[in-house]
Amino acid sequence: MPRTRADKDYYLILGVDARAPEEEIRHAYRRLALQWHPDRNPDRPQAAERFKEISEAYAVLIDPGKRSQYDRLRQAGAPGGFRPRREDLFRDLFADPRASAIFEELAREFERLGLRVDRQTFRSTLFGGRTVIAGGVVVISPLTLAHALGRLVRGLRPHARPSPSRSLGVLARVVRIGRSLLGLPAPQAGADVTYPLRLSRAEAAQGGAKRLTLSREPRADEVLVKIPPGVKSGTKLRLRGKGRPAADGRSGDAFLVIEVTD
To answer: In this structure, are residues 59 and 99 in contact, taking their beta carbons and an 8 Å threshold?
Structure first.
């Protein structure tokens, strides 16, 4: 019988003792992540879920506050009372530089194994390519779509080994097609950028202020966006001066494209 969320033992999942220090937890996760990452297990459909499971355990046990809360419930015989959303755990994991530094370590290990895996790959794997939205915070990378479509291209052409310049050309064309399919406008010739913004039906109906974090090189900006009540999917919100810096030092605009979800 598959283990339900209430039955999960995060220590058992990582194979460590309940008194394990932080470094042992890191070591256990590093070993299991190398073993179960989907890119290393293309013929094992269960690998993706197993990778998410061990990443969930790591996200809880590497965070002192979450681990303390989980331990109290576990010791009381009620670990099922610890029920954060998996996406919230992953969001907090990526937002914590101390905890998420392990993804750079893993990327180097994968590179030694001949696999091109970077931090964005881990984000895409754990979130299924979706924009990270939780608790009123949005962390968006303009490369999310490009990376996901790049993996699609590799999957469709498993035996092709195009030159780097040809690969970039193919990827650029696929990204343009993907943006069109998603209803996103093409990037402007200047420094404007476009991000998707997913809202629940309740958020869209109620509207109000929403604090967002826009990830744009070389920094991340926090902005407060006013969502009009009754906003519909496809609506574009303009954030003046929040695009990429142009050659003359001025910044373009950022456009948020609303997507209302169930």
So the answer is: yes
User: CB–CB of 130/206 below 8 Å?
Assistant: no
Strand partners, 256: 195, 237
**pLDDT at residue 4, as a whole number:** 40
Domain with CATH 1.10.287.110 in the chain: 9-127
Q: Where in the chain is the domain with CATH 2.60.260.20?
A: 144-261
Of 251, 255, 214, residue with least CA distance to 235: 255
What is the percent of the chain where pLDDT is above 90?
20
pLDDT of 181 reads: 46
pLDDT single digits (tens) 95-126: 888 888 899 899 888 888 888 777 778 888 88
Cα separation, 58 vs 23, in Å, equals: 11
Contacts of 32 (CB under 8 A, 6+ apart): 14, 15, 54
Query: What CATH number labels 144-261?
Result: 2.60.260.20
pLDDT at 166 over 70: no
Find out if CATH 3.40.50.1100 is the number for domain 9-127: no
pLDDT band at 248 (very low <50, low <70, confident <90, very high): low
Burial class (CB in 10 A: 0-12, 13-18, 19+), 159: exposed
d(CA 260, CA 262): 7
Distances in whole angstroms, Cα of residue 163 to Cα of each of 90, 167, 169: 35, 6, 10
